[in-house]
Design a protein that fits this description.
Number of strands of chain A: 14
Low-confidence stretches of chain A: none
CATH topology of the largest domain in chain A: Uridine Diphospho-n-acetylenolpyruvylglucosamine Reductase, domain 3
Shape of chain A: globular
CATH superfamily of one domain in chain B: Aldehyde oxidase/xanthine dehydrogenase, molybdopterin binding domain
CATH class of one domain in chain B: Alpha Beta
Strand content of chain B: 15-25%
Mean pLDDT of chain B: 96
Chains: A alpha+beta, B alpha+beta, C alpha+beta
Number of domains of chain A: 3
Distance between the termini of chain B: 50 Å
Largest interface: B-C, 54 and 57 residues
CATH architecture of one domain in chain B: 2-Layer Sandwich
Distance between the termini of chain A: 51 Å
Strand content of chain A: 25-35%
Helix content of chain B: 25-40%
Strand order of the largest sheet of chain B: 3-5-1-12-9-10-11
CATH class of the largest domain in chain A: Alpha Beta
Structural class of chain B: alpha+beta
Number of strands of chain B: 29
Largest sheet of chain B: 7 strands, mixed
Number of helices of chain A: 12
Helix content of chain A: 25-40%
Low-confidence stretches of chain B: none
CATH architecture of the largest domain in chain A: 2-Layer Sandwich
Oligomer: heterotrimer
Shape of chain B: globular
């Protein structure tokens, strides 16, 4: 289980990284935390000619407020989601999700940008960018752009990122006083990929939900917003009847894939249970 | 029942004392010496190209490009190794009628499971060897794949081994008493079909071997991470035609074994051949992905069983059919039928009943082979028996404790012979049951369960009694023709400075063999444990013996050390008596000093005896030849096995909406005879229980219809991890065996034997209000939700 | 300003020189880019106390301290660690910072085969530097990625718990 040979380049700037990628004929991979990429290389599932280390690029670091957003640099490590006060205050959903991301030593290396770029449908953070209505800042040969999370996740491990592009930061709208959030997942063992996971962010007036974004992971080929369920909740109070309606709506929102140990119907059932529990908590959090 | 006091119980005895393991300190500071750490001069690394097909004909192999790659020293196929290695067959004579095809290190013309090694590459690094694997082309022609056990048993279906009449490896029947009659007249009959998933050992250090052949001396040294170096010395010698005395197997520190590292693996045998072909050291360490597809798996049983009871709940009879699928070969040299054999013989073991019938069918299929892994057969026999007992209790209207109290063999009724043919010397089910009941706070647990149920929280309480096989005699393997020793040997010396050096054939895998041997030697000789050095695991220096398997280290190895020490002590006292002009019987040794046996007054240190014997023998009386090194062997006699017993309990909670199970607390009362080191015994129990809990809730090798292992990585195969495992409460009852002076029996399997049965009973207990039942292991959320009809 | 030299692409398996501070000493070694940190530590630097159990970050046997934090040395290439400070079990032992943990593990037999032990100790050390008096659940959570097949974990949890308590009582800890 040893990687195929590759060349290694440590980029000091975004431009250097992009340039190296282009000059390797795009037969290259950017590496940040590497917590998913290294095993893929060791298993020879991937074998680029060139590995471009972006972890020393200063521009990709740091968490700061920028207008109505929290700008979270792509290199922000999972453990910083737990330790960084700005995240706890302005993106508490990420703070709540972080302890569920793998194990402490993985969180010490893994990066937010790397997780979103990989877009593993079973990962916590990509799905949370959907719930947060985050924007993903991308640098590429043709310049920089920002893509809404809603438009970012395309297919299984496929995103709006074009070859040679990399994520520089994720912009998360600042958490407000009239908002509530909830997160949980059902994983067999602590730190495992969940059978089903879910995070949500609601804007409320008193008991009424004015807006809500609910995002699931481990339910399909991409992180998935459940717009049908959201629609049943918007403009309503969170009572048992509404919660049941939202749970019922999941059938139209989700089409879980078949896997050898978790049948689709079971995953849908678990999604309903989890949604019910989280909406219950959201209600209690008033 | 507790043991009568003997000399082993005297004050300050090392026997029965929780002393830390001296050899653990190295491991704590990163100074372990595992085979995977070893680098020898001129050593090369091997890697294997594996079959992607579960069953296929090898049409052609093209290795040209791989051979040409810079850094590659050898590319070897089945034919290359078949020229120097004789084939082996995994059968034993006492399993009448069993068959298995001959095996070679690498296949000649056919692959029989997905993951089977086909071509070996030896290169300057593992990475280069893997580069070369990518350059090898193999043409395969698919053959019909037999994965499912029912398909394998179909008449006229595809055959795994050409030329055989069916896919049956072995069939056995036991029939004792009037079973049909008992069932016909029973007041109650309970019946169920059970399934037990395949799982595997997942030692943290994967299999590792460094083979170093010296052509000049025709001598082979194999550094092998194994439990059984002598067995491999014999096998390498015979299959490669090297005289036994010129084959040396060294087993140093080993990162876990649990029975998995005592079987012949094709890659390991190949590596020996590769080093012979190259005349250089060759190393192979399985990576984790390879481990999952090439280490032995275990279990994979489907059992149909019924139990007959009278109106009061007395067990009258059991009737059992065990089907098990073992892969394409029977494993060498211990076979793959021992587990099934133990399943049908351990059924109902704790209970008093007369009528028993069982059929065992062992079937070939296109998967990696199964064989002995910790608690061989026990968890299956235990789960089937104990679940049937719980079902019977519900039917008769008895509490699980009550039905067991009524049916276990009474503690004063031994010796007993079980209806399956096992002879029990002395067990303590009644004492263990009583103790567990107290330890669990059973009544309070039941009350709490009832309260919580009212609030929609579903807890389950399960118990499971078990009998464990330990201290095996030659009846286990020797009678079947396997050259696997059931005796052990020790060589004990008084060193010139008055310390003791003990070379012994039992081996250390972390369970504390070296620690308990040093405790026994220190205790029996009369000196401090730190003055005893124990050396294990090198066929060149340690005497031939069985080594470590089937819970024999403490019972057989310990007795060997005890007897050897007594001989050495006698020799030391003889010399002391000459020097002191006393009778040897008037002297004793305490804390390294020869003392007056009656007054305990110090006479002289044993270091002084050593000094005189080694350096001033001229001062001893003429004709005296001090024998300060003794060699001694011990083979178990009397009962063919020393059976142990115990009972486990478990409290857990089932989330009936998600199917998730949280084990809250686990309990065990265990009787392994004389306890030498209580801390190490408790650690064996805890570790064993957690392996059983893994099997109960998480672990399963899942295969696709085409015979591909679907979850063969440590991310996908769920081993028990810290967060999900409970704290474990332990109690002991001590019933020493009278077959040895030491009285110790084994303890390694006890935890694993009944943990899964306990969980199975507890989950079913939790699901009682829903009328749902589960009789399949592992108990996954999917199975729970299916049973509850939640999707 | 590119910084990227295309000739690099032609010698993928050529070794490059990396420098780290390993266990307090400056070290330079030649590694192929594809060589993982765990292989480099074990082979080139002969620090075999760090173990490879799964090579995919699922077992915790290979944990080392990198710039003060526990990381899987199987989940990074040695070249990525160029310039980093690395402490392995050998260095943590020499500096004495985990001596109490090691003594308590020994005293309670919180290890059998010992293969997981260095990783357990690295993680336990990090936990206690972050939370002075963790609960048993917090200890189990911190070890949730450290696999041990032998002990059943309880003695490991007990040992860490006891050390946390002792450090607290002696006024140490953070």
């Amino acid at each position: 289980m040893k990687a195929r040979a590759f060349s290694y380049f440590r980029a000091a700037t975004i431009d250097q990284a992009l340039d190296a990628h282009a000059r390797a004929g795009d037969d290259a991979r950017f590496i940040a935390g590497g917590q998913s990429l290294v095993p893929a290389l060791s298993l020879r599932l991937q074998a680029p000619r060139l590995l471009i280390d972006i972890t020393h690029i200063e521009e990709l670091r740091g968490v700061r407020r920028e207008g109505g957003y929290l700008r979270i640099g792509a290199l922000t490590r999972h453990c910083e989601m737990l330790s960084e006060p700005l995240i706890a205050e302005f993106a508490p959903l990420l703070h709540a999700a972080a302890p569920f991301v793998a194990h402490p030593a993985i969180r010490n290396r893994g990066t937010f940008g790397g997780s979103v770029a990989l877009a593993d449908p079973a990962s916590e953070f990509p799905a949370m960018t959907l719930a947060l209505d985050a924007e993903i800042e991308i640098a590429g040969p043709s310049g920089s752009r920002r893509v809404k999370a809603d438009d970012f996740f395309v297919e299984l491990f496929e995103t709006a990122l074009q070859p040679g592009e990399l994520i520089t930061a994720i912009y998360v709208p600042l958490f407000k006083a009239d908002q509530r959030f909830a997160f949980d997942e059902l994983a067999r063992r602590r730190g495992d990929y969940a059978l089903v996971g879910c995070g949500m962010l609601a804007t409320c007036t008193g008991e009424r939900i004015d807006d809500i974004r609910i995002s699931f992971f481990s339910v399909g080929n991409t992180p998935t917003r459940v717009k049908g369920a959201e629609a049943t909740l918007i403009g309503s109070r969170l009572d048992a009847e509404r919660i049941a309606a939202a749970q019922a709506a999941l059938e139209g929102d989700l089409a879980p894939p078949d896997s050898d140990d978790v049948p689709p119907a079971m995953r849908l059932h678990l999604a309903r249970v989890l949604l019910g529990r989280l909406l219950g908590r959201l209600g209690e959090g008033a | 029942m507790s043991a009568p006091l003997t000399s082993l119980d005297r004050p300050n005895s090392y026997i029965g004392r929780s002393v830390p393991r001296p050899n653990a300190k190295r491991l704590l500071v990163g100074r372990g010496r595992y085979v995977s750490d070893l680098r020898l001069p001129r050593m090369l690394d091997a890697a294997f190209l594996r079959s992607p097909h579960a069953h296929a004909k090898i049409v052609a192999i093209n290795t040209e490009q791989a051979r040409a790659l810079e850094g590659v020293h050898l590319v070897a196929t089945g034919e290359d190794l078949a020229k120097i290695c004789t084939p082996w067959t995994g059968t034993l004579d006492h399993f009448k009628g069993m068959t298995s095809a001959p095996q070679l290190p690498l296949p000649l013309d056919r692959v029989v499971w997905a993951g089977q090694a086909v071509v070996a590459v030896v290169a300057e690094s593992r990475a280069i060897a893997e580069d070369a694997l990518e350059l090898i082309e193999i043409d395969y022609e698919d053959l019909p794949v037999v994965v499912d056990i029912d398909r394998a048993r179909e008449a006229g279906g595809p055959l795994i081994n050409p030329g055989s009449v069916n896919n049956t490896c072995f069939r056995a029947q036991l029939d004792n008493g009037a079973v049909d009659d008992a069932f016909a007249h029973a007041a109650h009959v309970v019946e169920e079909e059970f399934s037990f998933g395949r799982h595997t050992a997942v030692t943290l250090e994967p299999r590792a071997i460094v083979s170093d052949y010296d052509p000049a001396a025709d001598a082979l040294t194999v550094h092998h991470a194994t439990q059984t170096p002598y067995q491999f010395q014999d096998l390498y010698s015979r299959h490669y035609g090297i005289p036994e005395a010129r084959v040396r197997v060294i087993a140093t520190d080993i990162g876990g074994s649990f029975g998995m590292k005592l079987h012949v693996y094709h890659e390991d045998m190949a590596v020996v051949g590769l080093s012979i072909l190259l005349g250089r050291p060759v190393k192979y360490v399985a990576d984790r992905i390879e481990s999952f597809v090439s280490d032995i798996h275990a279990r994979d049983h489907r059992v149909r069983a019924r139990m007959a009871l009278d109106a009061k709940g007395e067990i009258l009879a059991m009737d059992v059919l065990d089907l098990t699928a073992i892969g394409a070969f029977s494993t060498y040299p211990r076979t793959s039928v021992v587990e099934g054999n133990q399943v049908i013989r351990l059924m109902g073991a704790p209970y008093r009943f007369k009528n028993y019938r069982a059929t065992l069918e062992v079937i070939f299929q296109n998967k990696v082979q199964t064989s002995q892994y910790r608690a061989v057969g026990h968890p299956i026999a235990c789960a089937v028996t104990e679940r049937l007992v719980d079902m019977a209790a519900a039917k008769v209207g008895l509490d699980p404790f009550a039905i067991r109290a009524q049916n276990v063999i009474a503690d004063d009724a031994y010796p007993q012979t079980s209806p399956t043919g096992y002879r029990f010397e002395a067990l303590s089910h009644q004492a263990c049951l009583k103790r567990l009941h107290e330890m669990m706070g059973y009544e309070a647990l039941r009350a709490e369960q009832a309260d919580l149920r009212e609030r929609g929280i579903y807890r389950g309480i399960g118990i499971a009694a078990f009998v464990e096989i330990t201290n095996p005699s030659p009846a286990f393997y020797g009678v079947g023709g396997a050259r696997i020793s059931s005796q052990d040997g020790a060589i004990l010396s008084l060193t010139p400075s008055g310390e003791i050096r003990c070379l012994i054939s039992v081996t250390e895998q972390g369970q504390g063999t070296e620690a308990i041997i040093s405790q026994i030697v220190a205790d029996q000789l009369g000196l401090a444990q730190e003055h005893v050095k124990v050396i294990t695991g090198d066929t060149e220096v340690t005497p031939h013996g069985g080594a470590t398997w089937a819970c024999r280290g403490a019972g057989i190895g310990g007795e060997t050390a005890l007897q050897a020490t007594r001989v050495l002590k006698r020799n030391i006292l003889e010399i002391a008596a000459l020097i002191l002009q006393e009778q040897p019987s008037a002297l004793d040794i305490i804390d390294g000093e020869v003392v007056d046996a009656v007054t305990r007054n110090q006479r002289m240190p044993i270091s002084e005896i050593a000094r005189i014997a080694y350096f001033r023998s001229d001062t001893l009386p003429p004709g005296t030849q001090a024998q300060l090194t003794v060699s001694h062997h011990f083979a178990p006699q009397g009962y063919p096995f020393a059976f142990t017993n115990g009972i486990q309990g478990c409290s857990l909670e089932v989330d009936v909406e998600t199917g998730f199970i949280k084990v809250l607390k686990h309990f065990i009362v265990e009787d392994c005879g004389r306890v030498i080191n209580p801390m190490l015994v408790d650690e064996q129990l805890r570790g064993g229980i957690v392996q059983g809990l893994g099997a109960a809730l998480f672990e399963e090798c899942r295969y696709s219809e085409t015979g591909q292992l679907m979850n063969g990585s440590l991310a996908d195969y769920l081993v028990p991890m810290p967060m999900e495992m409970p704290d474990i409460v332990i109690g002991h009852v001590e019933t020493p065996t009278a077959d040895t002076v030491l009285g110790a029996k084994g303890v390694g399997e006890a935890g694993t034997a009944a943990a899964s049965a306990c969980v199975l009973n507890a989950v079913n207990d939790a699901l009682t209000p829903f009328g749902a039942t589960i009789n399949s292991i592992p108990i996954t959320p999917t199975k729970v939700l299916k049973a509850l009809k939640r999707f | 300003m590119s910084g990227f030299d295309e000739t690099l692409l032609d010698d993928a398996d050529e070794t490059v020189r990396v420098r780290f501070v390993v266990n307090g000493r400056k070290v330079a070694c030649e590694v192929a880019p594809r060589e993982t940190l765990v292989d480099c530590l074990r082979n080139a630097l002969e620090l075999t106390g760090t173990h490879a159990g799964c090579e995919m970050g699922a077992c915790g046997a290979c944990l080392v301290q990198l710039d003060g934090r526990a990381v899987h040395s199987c989940l990074m290439f040695a070249v990525q660690a160029d310039g980093a400070k690395i402490n392995t079990i050998e260095g943590l032992t020499e500096s004495g910072v985990i001596a109490d943990l090691q003594a308590e593990f020994h005293h309670r037999n919180a290890l059998q085969c010992g293969f997981c032990t260095p990783g357990m100790l690295v993680n336990a050390h990090e936990l206690l530097s972050q939370i002075a008096r963790p609960s048993r659940d917090e200890i189990r959570d911190a070890l949730s990625g450290n696999y041990c097949r032998c002990t059943g974990y309880e003695a490991i949890v007990d040992a860490i718990d006891a050390v946390a308590k002792a450090r607290k009582e002696s006024g140490g800890g953070t």
